[in-house]
Amino acid sequence: METLQLVVAALMGGLAAYLAQQGIAVFNDGLRPLLPEFLEGRMNRRELALTSFALCFGLVIGFGIPFSLTSQIILIHSVFLATDIIGTSSPNKWLAAGLGAAWGVLLTIGLQALVDLFALLPVNFLDALGQVSSPITAAFAVFPALAVALHHGWKKGAITFALQMLARQIVVRVNPIQFGTASINLNAEGTALVIGMILLLVFAAREKAEVTADASLAAVFSDRVQRIKKNVLVLSIMGALVAAAANLGVVAGDPISLGLAAEGNIVDAGIAALARGIGFVPLVATTAVATGVYGPVGMTFVFAAGFFSPHWIVAAILGAVIVFLEVMLLDVIARFLDRFPGVRAAGEHIRTAMTKVLEIALLVGGMIAGNAMAPGLGYFIVAAIVVLNEAAGLPVNRLAIGPVAAILTGILVNILKVLTLFS
User: Fold this and answer.
1) Torsion angle, CA of 347/351/356/358, rounded to 10 degrees?
2) Cα(187)–Cα(195) distance, rounded to whole angstroms?
3) Residue 221's CB: how many other CB atoms inside 10 A?
4) Which residues fall within 8 angstroms of residue 221, CB to CB, at 6 or more apart?
5) Does pTM surpass 0.85?
6) Cα distances (angstroms) measured from residue 217 to each of 293, 315, 325, 344
7) For 104-150, what is each residue's pLDDT tens digit?
Protein backbone atom coordinates (compact mmCIF):
# COMPACT_ATOMS: atom_id res chain seq x y z
CA MET A 1 0.00 0.00 0.00
CA GLU A 2 1.49 3.30 -1.10
CA THR A 3 1.97 6.12 1.39
CA LEU A 4 -0.15 8.46 -0.76
CA GLN A 5 -3.11 6.08 -0.58
CA LEU A 6 -2.83 5.88 3.20
CA VAL A 7 -2.62 9.67 3.51
CA VAL A 8 -5.69 10.17 1.35
CA ALA A 9 -7.59 7.48 3.29
CA ALA A 10 -6.67 9.14 6.60
CA LEU A 11 -7.66 12.63 5.46
CA MET A 12 -10.89 11.32 3.97
CA GLY A 13 -11.88 9.43 7.13
CA GLY A 14 -10.87 12.28 9.42
CA LEU A 15 -12.74 14.97 7.50
CA ALA A 16 -15.86 12.79 7.14
CA ALA A 17 -16.00 12.20 10.90
CA TYR A 18 -15.48 15.95 11.49
CA LEU A 19 -18.37 16.77 9.15
CA ALA A 20 -20.63 14.28 10.93
CA GLN A 21 -19.66 15.63 14.37
CA GLN A 22 -20.46 19.17 13.28
CA GLY A 23 -23.73 18.15 11.65
CA ILE A 24 -22.54 19.38 8.25
CA ALA A 25 -22.71 16.10 6.33
CA VAL A 26 -23.49 12.44 6.97
CA PHE A 27 -23.39 9.52 4.56
CA ASN A 28 -26.42 7.52 5.71
CA ASP A 29 -29.52 8.90 4.00
CA GLY A 30 -31.67 7.68 6.89
CA LEU A 31 -29.54 9.54 9.43
CA ARG A 32 -29.63 12.88 7.61
CA PRO A 33 -33.20 13.83 8.64
CA LEU A 34 -32.30 13.28 12.31
CA LEU A 35 -29.50 15.85 12.35
CA PRO A 36 -31.85 18.88 12.50
CA GLU A 37 -33.46 17.31 15.58
CA PHE A 38 -30.04 17.29 17.26
CA LEU A 39 -28.87 20.65 15.94
CA GLU A 40 -32.08 22.35 17.07
CA GLY A 41 -31.96 20.80 20.56
CA ARG A 42 -34.77 18.24 20.32
CA MET A 43 -32.36 15.28 20.55
CA ASN A 44 -29.21 14.93 22.66
CA ARG A 45 -25.90 13.50 21.44
CA ARG A 46 -26.36 10.20 23.25
CA GLU A 47 -29.67 9.59 21.48
CA LEU A 48 -28.16 10.63 18.18
CA ALA A 49 -25.17 8.32 18.69
CA LEU A 50 -27.34 5.32 19.55
CA THR A 51 -29.55 5.92 16.54
CA SER A 52 -26.54 6.37 14.28
CA PHE A 53 -25.04 3.11 15.52
CA ALA A 54 -28.31 1.25 14.95
CA LEU A 55 -28.62 2.63 11.41
CA CYS A 56 -25.00 2.20 10.33
CA PHE A 57 -23.22 -0.63 12.13
CA GLY A 58 -25.04 -3.51 10.47
CA LEU A 59 -24.41 -2.02 7.04
CA VAL A 60 -20.67 -1.71 7.74
CA ILE A 61 -20.39 -5.36 8.78
CA GLY A 62 -22.99 -6.89 6.49
CA PHE A 63 -22.58 -4.75 3.39
CA GLY A 64 -19.43 -2.61 3.25
CA ILE A 65 -16.82 -5.11 4.46
CA PRO A 66 -18.02 -8.17 2.45
CA PHE A 67 -17.96 -6.22 -0.80
CA SER A 68 -14.57 -4.76 0.02
CA LEU A 69 -13.20 -8.27 0.48
CA THR A 70 -14.16 -9.24 -3.08
CA SER A 71 -11.34 -7.00 -4.32
CA GLN A 72 -8.63 -4.78 -2.89
CA ILE A 73 -10.79 -1.69 -3.39
CA ILE A 74 -12.79 -0.49 -0.39
CA LEU A 75 -16.51 0.07 -0.79
CA ILE A 76 -17.06 3.62 0.47
CA HIS A 77 -19.83 2.47 2.82
CA SER A 78 -17.16 0.77 4.95
CA VAL A 79 -15.52 4.15 5.51
CA PHE A 80 -18.34 6.66 5.75
CA LEU A 81 -20.96 4.65 7.62
CA ALA A 82 -18.33 4.11 10.31
CA THR A 83 -17.35 7.80 10.32
CA ASP A 84 -21.05 8.65 10.73
CA ILE A 85 -20.97 6.62 13.96
CA ILE A 86 -17.65 8.11 15.07
CA GLY A 87 -18.68 11.68 14.31
CA THR A 88 -22.13 11.59 15.87
CA SER A 89 -20.74 9.86 18.98
CA SER A 90 -17.74 12.13 19.58
CA PRO A 91 -18.01 15.00 22.11
CA ASN A 92 -15.67 17.27 20.12
CA LYS A 93 -14.60 17.72 16.53
CA TRP A 94 -10.89 17.03 17.01
CA LEU A 95 -11.49 13.65 18.65
CA ALA A 96 -13.87 12.79 15.82
CA ALA A 97 -11.31 13.79 13.19
CA GLY A 98 -8.55 11.77 14.86
CA LEU A 99 -10.67 8.64 15.22
CA GLY A 100 -11.96 9.00 11.68
CA ALA A 101 -8.44 9.29 10.30
CA ALA A 102 -7.37 6.23 12.30
CA TRP A 103 -10.31 4.27 10.93
CA GLY A 104 -9.43 5.22 7.36
CA VAL A 105 -5.86 3.98 7.80
CA LEU A 106 -6.79 0.83 9.72
CA LEU A 107 -9.41 -0.13 7.18
CA THR A 108 -7.00 0.36 4.29
CA ILE A 109 -4.19 -1.59 5.96
CA GLY A 110 -6.51 -4.16 7.50
CA LEU A 111 -8.03 -5.10 4.17
CA GLN A 112 -4.58 -5.93 2.81
CA ALA A 113 -3.80 -7.86 6.00
CA LEU A 114 -6.92 -9.96 5.48
CA VAL A 115 -5.87 -10.64 1.90
CA ASP A 116 -2.44 -11.79 3.14
CA LEU A 117 -4.11 -13.95 5.81
CA PHE A 118 -6.34 -15.67 3.28
CA ALA A 119 -3.25 -16.54 1.25
CA LEU A 120 -2.06 -18.71 4.19
CA LEU A 121 -5.23 -20.81 4.27
CA PRO A 122 -5.21 -24.41 2.97
CA VAL A 123 -7.62 -23.28 0.25
CA ASN A 124 -7.05 -19.68 -0.82
CA PHE A 125 -10.48 -18.65 -2.05
CA LEU A 126 -9.80 -14.97 -2.78
CA ASP A 127 -9.38 -15.45 -6.54
CA ALA A 128 -12.67 -17.31 -6.68
CA LEU A 129 -14.29 -14.69 -4.45
CA GLY A 130 -13.53 -12.09 -7.09
CA GLN A 131 -16.02 -13.84 -9.39
CA VAL A 132 -18.86 -12.51 -7.24
CA SER A 133 -18.80 -9.40 -9.41
CA SER A 134 -18.58 -11.25 -12.75
CA PRO A 135 -22.29 -10.97 -13.72
CA ILE A 136 -22.55 -7.31 -12.73
CA THR A 137 -21.14 -5.82 -15.92
CA ALA A 138 -23.74 -7.42 -18.17
CA ALA A 139 -26.67 -7.28 -15.73
CA PHE A 140 -26.23 -3.66 -14.66
CA ALA A 141 -27.14 -2.31 -18.10
CA VAL A 142 -30.66 -3.71 -17.63
CA PHE A 143 -31.64 -1.36 -14.81
CA PRO A 144 -32.92 1.55 -16.98
CA ALA A 145 -35.46 -0.80 -18.59
CA LEU A 146 -36.64 -1.90 -15.15
CA ALA A 147 -36.81 1.71 -13.94
CA VAL A 148 -38.95 2.63 -16.96
CA ALA A 149 -41.19 -0.38 -16.30
CA LEU A 150 -41.64 0.58 -12.65
CA HIS A 151 -42.53 4.16 -13.55
CA HIS A 152 -44.32 3.90 -16.89
CA GLY A 153 -45.47 0.28 -17.17
CA TRP A 154 -43.98 -2.95 -18.43
CA LYS A 155 -44.68 -2.24 -22.13
CA LYS A 156 -42.44 0.84 -22.20
CA GLY A 157 -39.94 -1.10 -20.10
CA ALA A 158 -39.93 -3.89 -22.69
CA ILE A 159 -39.46 -1.36 -25.51
CA THR A 160 -36.54 0.18 -23.63
CA PHE A 161 -34.99 -3.25 -23.14
CA ALA A 162 -35.45 -4.15 -26.81
CA LEU A 163 -33.74 -0.95 -27.96
CA GLN A 164 -30.93 -1.48 -25.44
CA MET A 165 -30.38 -5.04 -26.65
CA LEU A 166 -30.42 -3.89 -30.28
CA ALA A 167 -27.84 -1.16 -29.53
CA ARG A 168 -25.68 -3.64 -27.62
CA GLN A 169 -25.62 -6.17 -30.44
CA ILE A 170 -24.96 -3.53 -33.10
CA VAL A 171 -21.87 -2.48 -31.13
CA VAL A 172 -20.75 -6.11 -30.83
CA ARG A 173 -21.21 -6.48 -34.57
CA VAL A 174 -19.36 -3.34 -35.68
CA ASN A 175 -16.43 -3.57 -33.22
CA PRO A 176 -13.65 -2.65 -33.71
CA ILE A 177 -14.35 0.62 -35.54
CA GLN A 178 -11.45 1.56 -37.80
CA PHE A 179 -10.16 5.12 -38.17
CA GLY A 180 -7.29 4.80 -40.59
CA THR A 181 -4.61 2.89 -38.73
CA ALA A 182 -6.35 3.33 -35.38
CA SER A 183 -9.27 1.33 -34.07
CA ILE A 184 -11.78 1.87 -31.27
CA ASN A 185 -13.66 -0.81 -29.37
CA LEU A 186 -16.96 0.50 -28.03
CA ASN A 187 -18.21 -1.11 -24.85
CA ALA A 188 -21.40 -3.06 -25.57
CA GLU A 189 -22.88 -2.89 -22.06
CA GLY A 190 -21.93 0.77 -21.72
CA THR A 191 -23.73 1.58 -24.96
CA ALA A 192 -26.84 -0.28 -23.82
CA LEU A 193 -26.73 1.61 -20.53
CA VAL A 194 -26.45 5.02 -22.23
CA ILE A 195 -29.38 4.25 -24.56
CA GLY A 196 -31.47 3.09 -21.60
CA MET A 197 -30.70 6.19 -19.54
CA ILE A 198 -31.59 8.50 -22.46
CA LEU A 199 -34.96 6.78 -22.87
CA LEU A 200 -35.55 6.85 -19.10
CA LEU A 201 -34.95 10.59 -18.91
CA VAL A 202 -37.04 11.28 -22.02
CA PHE A 203 -40.01 9.46 -20.48
CA ALA A 204 -39.50 11.19 -17.12
CA ALA A 205 -39.21 14.71 -18.57
CA ARG A 206 -42.64 14.43 -20.20
CA GLU A 207 -44.26 14.84 -16.75
CA LYS A 208 -44.47 18.50 -15.71
CA ALA A 209 -46.11 20.46 -12.91
CA GLU A 210 -46.80 24.12 -12.22
CA VAL A 211 -45.19 25.25 -8.95
CA THR A 212 -45.15 28.82 -7.64
CA ALA A 213 -41.86 30.29 -6.42
CA ASP A 214 -43.11 30.60 -2.85
CA ALA A 215 -44.28 26.99 -2.73
CA SER A 216 -41.07 25.44 -4.02
CA LEU A 217 -39.01 23.20 -1.76
CA ALA A 218 -36.04 25.58 -1.89
CA ALA A 219 -38.19 28.52 -0.79
CA VAL A 220 -39.73 26.64 2.15
CA PHE A 221 -36.31 25.58 3.47
CA SER A 222 -34.22 28.56 2.34
CA ASP A 223 -32.45 28.90 5.71
CA ARG A 224 -31.28 25.29 5.55
CA VAL A 225 -30.05 25.72 1.98
CA GLN A 226 -28.00 28.70 3.16
CA ARG A 227 -26.52 26.62 5.98
CA ILE A 228 -25.16 24.12 3.44
CA LYS A 229 -23.83 26.90 1.24
CA LYS A 230 -21.92 28.39 4.19
CA ASN A 231 -20.01 25.09 4.43
CA VAL A 232 -19.29 24.83 0.71
CA LEU A 233 -15.50 25.13 1.17
CA VAL A 234 -15.09 22.17 3.53
CA LEU A 235 -17.58 20.12 1.50
CA SER A 236 -15.57 20.85 -1.65
CA ILE A 237 -12.40 19.62 0.09
CA MET A 238 -14.26 16.44 0.97
CA GLY A 239 -15.25 16.04 -2.67
CA ALA A 240 -11.62 16.46 -3.71
CA LEU A 241 -10.47 13.74 -1.30
CA VAL A 242 -13.12 11.25 -2.41
CA ALA A 243 -12.40 11.80 -6.10
CA ALA A 244 -8.66 11.43 -5.48
CA ALA A 245 -9.25 8.24 -3.48
CA ALA A 246 -11.33 6.78 -6.31
CA ASN A 247 -8.63 7.64 -8.84
CA LEU A 248 -5.94 6.03 -6.68
CA GLY A 249 -7.93 2.80 -6.42
CA VAL A 250 -8.59 3.20 -2.70
CA VAL A 251 -12.40 3.36 -2.81
CA ALA A 252 -15.41 2.90 -5.06
CA GLY A 253 -18.88 4.28 -4.49
CA ASP A 254 -21.01 1.20 -5.19
CA PRO A 255 -20.64 -2.55 -5.78
CA ILE A 256 -21.06 -2.16 -9.54
CA SER A 257 -18.24 0.30 -10.14
CA LEU A 258 -16.14 -1.51 -7.52
CA GLY A 259 -16.40 -4.77 -9.46
CA LEU A 260 -15.66 -3.08 -12.77
CA ALA A 261 -12.69 -1.15 -11.39
CA ALA A 262 -11.31 -4.32 -9.79
CA GLU A 263 -11.38 -5.97 -13.22
CA GLY A 264 -9.51 -3.02 -14.72
CA ASN A 265 -12.56 -1.65 -16.58
CA ILE A 266 -12.06 1.90 -15.31
CA VAL A 267 -14.08 3.65 -18.03
CA ASP A 268 -17.00 1.28 -17.48
CA ALA A 269 -16.71 1.93 -13.74
CA GLY A 270 -16.92 5.65 -14.46
CA ILE A 271 -20.03 5.17 -16.62
CA ALA A 272 -21.66 3.10 -13.88
CA ALA A 273 -20.80 5.76 -11.28
CA LEU A 274 -22.21 8.47 -13.54
CA ALA A 275 -25.48 6.60 -14.02
CA ARG A 276 -25.77 6.02 -10.29
CA GLY A 277 -25.18 9.72 -9.67
CA ILE A 278 -28.12 10.64 -11.90
CA GLY A 279 -30.32 8.36 -9.82
CA PHE A 280 -29.18 9.96 -6.57
CA VAL A 281 -29.70 13.61 -7.55
CA PRO A 282 -33.36 13.75 -6.40
CA LEU A 283 -32.70 11.97 -3.09
CA VAL A 284 -29.59 13.93 -2.11
CA ALA A 285 -30.96 17.29 -3.26
CA THR A 286 -34.32 16.82 -1.55
CA THR A 287 -32.94 15.59 1.78
CA ALA A 288 -30.21 18.25 1.75
CA VAL A 289 -32.64 21.09 1.15
CA ALA A 290 -35.12 19.80 3.73
CA THR A 291 -32.53 19.11 6.47
CA GLY A 292 -29.68 21.54 5.89
CA VAL A 293 -27.28 18.56 6.01
CA TYR A 294 -25.31 17.38 2.97
CA GLY A 295 -23.53 14.12 2.19
CA PRO A 296 -19.74 13.67 2.19
CA VAL A 297 -19.90 12.34 -1.38
CA GLY A 298 -22.50 14.85 -2.51
CA MET A 299 -24.60 13.48 -5.35
CA THR A 300 -21.90 10.81 -5.95
CA PHE A 301 -20.60 12.29 -9.23
CA VAL A 302 -17.20 12.66 -7.54
CA PHE A 303 -16.62 8.93 -8.08
CA ALA A 304 -17.12 9.31 -11.83
CA ALA A 305 -14.66 12.20 -11.76
CA GLY A 306 -12.15 9.98 -10.01
CA PHE A 307 -12.48 7.13 -12.50
CA PHE A 308 -12.40 9.32 -15.61
CA SER A 309 -9.46 11.51 -14.51
CA PRO A 310 -5.94 10.74 -15.83
CA HIS A 311 -4.27 11.67 -12.51
CA TRP A 312 -5.28 11.94 -8.88
CA ILE A 313 -4.55 15.69 -8.80
CA VAL A 314 -6.90 16.26 -11.72
CA ALA A 315 -9.46 14.09 -9.96
CA ALA A 316 -9.15 16.14 -6.77
CA ILE A 317 -9.68 19.40 -8.63
CA LEU A 318 -12.71 18.03 -10.48
CA GLY A 319 -14.13 16.58 -7.27
CA ALA A 320 -13.89 19.93 -5.52
CA VAL A 321 -15.48 21.77 -8.44
CA ILE A 322 -18.30 19.25 -8.75
CA VAL A 323 -19.29 19.47 -5.08
CA PHE A 324 -18.97 23.26 -5.15
CA LEU A 325 -21.37 23.46 -8.09
CA GLU A 326 -23.76 20.94 -6.52
CA VAL A 327 -24.02 22.98 -3.35
CA MET A 328 -24.29 26.37 -5.02
CA LEU A 329 -26.97 25.09 -7.39
CA LEU A 330 -29.00 23.27 -4.75
CA ASP A 331 -31.93 25.66 -4.89
CA VAL A 332 -31.91 25.57 -8.71
CA ILE A 333 -31.93 21.76 -8.67
CA ALA A 334 -34.76 21.74 -6.13
CA ARG A 335 -36.87 24.04 -8.29
CA PHE A 336 -36.17 21.87 -11.33
CA LEU A 337 -37.34 18.77 -9.45
CA ASP A 338 -40.48 20.62 -8.37
CA ARG A 339 -41.11 21.56 -12.01
CA PHE A 340 -40.51 18.02 -13.32
CA PRO A 341 -41.96 15.55 -10.80
CA GLY A 342 -41.32 12.75 -13.29
CA VAL A 343 -37.58 13.29 -12.94
CA ARG A 344 -37.87 13.23 -9.14
CA ALA A 345 -39.86 9.98 -9.31
CA ALA A 346 -37.38 8.57 -11.83
CA GLY A 347 -34.61 8.95 -9.26
CA GLU A 348 -36.50 6.73 -6.83
CA HIS A 349 -37.21 4.16 -9.54
CA ILE A 350 -33.56 4.20 -10.64
CA ARG A 351 -32.38 3.37 -7.12
CA THR A 352 -35.03 0.64 -6.78
CA ALA A 353 -34.12 -0.83 -10.16
CA MET A 354 -30.41 -0.78 -9.36
CA THR A 355 -31.06 -2.61 -6.11
CA LYS A 356 -33.23 -5.26 -7.76
CA VAL A 357 -30.75 -5.88 -10.55
CA LEU A 358 -27.85 -5.99 -8.11
CA GLU A 359 -29.64 -8.48 -5.86
CA ILE A 360 -29.97 -10.88 -8.78
CA ALA A 361 -26.50 -10.26 -10.21
CA LEU A 362 -24.75 -10.66 -6.86
CA LEU A 363 -26.71 -13.78 -5.98
CA VAL A 364 -25.68 -15.32 -9.29
CA GLY A 365 -22.14 -14.08 -8.70
CA GLY A 366 -22.14 -15.68 -5.25
CA MET A 367 -23.17 -18.99 -6.79
CA ILE A 368 -20.46 -18.73 -9.46
CA ALA A 369 -17.81 -17.88 -6.86
CA GLY A 370 -18.94 -20.69 -4.55
CA ASN A 371 -18.78 -23.21 -7.35
CA ALA A 372 -15.32 -21.98 -8.36
CA MET A 373 -14.13 -22.70 -4.79
CA ALA A 374 -15.70 -26.14 -4.65
CA PRO A 375 -17.46 -27.46 -7.79
CA GLY A 376 -20.93 -28.70 -6.91
CA LEU A 377 -20.45 -28.25 -3.18
CA GLY A 378 -20.22 -24.48 -3.64
CA TYR A 379 -23.65 -24.28 -5.23
CA PHE A 380 -25.04 -26.38 -2.38
CA ILE A 381 -23.56 -24.21 0.38
CA VAL A 382 -24.44 -20.85 -1.19
CA ALA A 383 -28.02 -21.95 -1.89
CA ALA A 384 -28.38 -23.20 1.69
CA ILE A 385 -27.07 -19.94 3.18
CA VAL A 386 -29.38 -17.85 1.00
CA VAL A 387 -32.55 -19.79 1.82
CA LEU A 388 -31.70 -20.01 5.53
CA ASN A 389 -31.15 -16.25 5.55
CA GLU A 390 -34.63 -15.83 4.05
CA ALA A 391 -36.11 -18.19 6.65
CA ALA A 392 -34.41 -16.25 9.46
CA GLY A 393 -36.05 -13.01 8.37
CA LEU A 394 -33.13 -11.52 6.39
CA PRO A 395 -30.51 -10.76 9.06
CA VAL A 396 -28.28 -10.14 6.03
CA ASN A 397 -30.07 -8.07 3.39
CA ARG A 398 -30.58 -9.49 -0.09
CA LEU A 399 -28.06 -7.13 -1.63
CA ALA A 400 -25.22 -8.46 0.54
CA ILE A 401 -26.17 -12.13 0.90
CA GLY A 402 -24.41 -13.21 -2.31
CA PRO A 403 -20.94 -11.96 -1.27
CA VAL A 404 -21.50 -13.04 2.36
CA ALA A 405 -22.52 -16.53 1.25
CA ALA A 406 -19.43 -16.77 -0.97
CA ILE A 407 -17.14 -15.75 1.92
CA LEU A 408 -18.79 -18.28 4.25
CA THR A 409 -18.42 -20.93 1.56
CA GLY A 410 -14.69 -20.27 1.44
CA ILE A 411 -14.45 -20.59 5.23
CA LEU A 412 -16.46 -23.84 5.28
CA VAL A 413 -14.37 -25.30 2.46
CA ASN A 414 -11.22 -24.63 4.49
CA ILE A 415 -12.75 -26.31 7.54
CA LEU A 416 -13.64 -29.35 5.43
CA LYS A 417 -10.11 -29.35 4.02
CA VAL A 418 -8.64 -29.49 7.54
CA LEU A 419 -11.01 -32.35 8.36
CA THR A 420 -9.83 -34.11 5.16
CA LEU A 421 -13.40 -34.02 3.85
CA PHE A 422 -12.47 -31.87 0.87
CA SER A 423 -9.70 -32.34 -1.65
Assistant:
1) 130
2) 12
3) 21
4) 289, 290, 292
5) no
6) 15, 32, 19, 12
7) 999 988 877 777 777 788 988 877 887 887 787 678 789 889 989 99
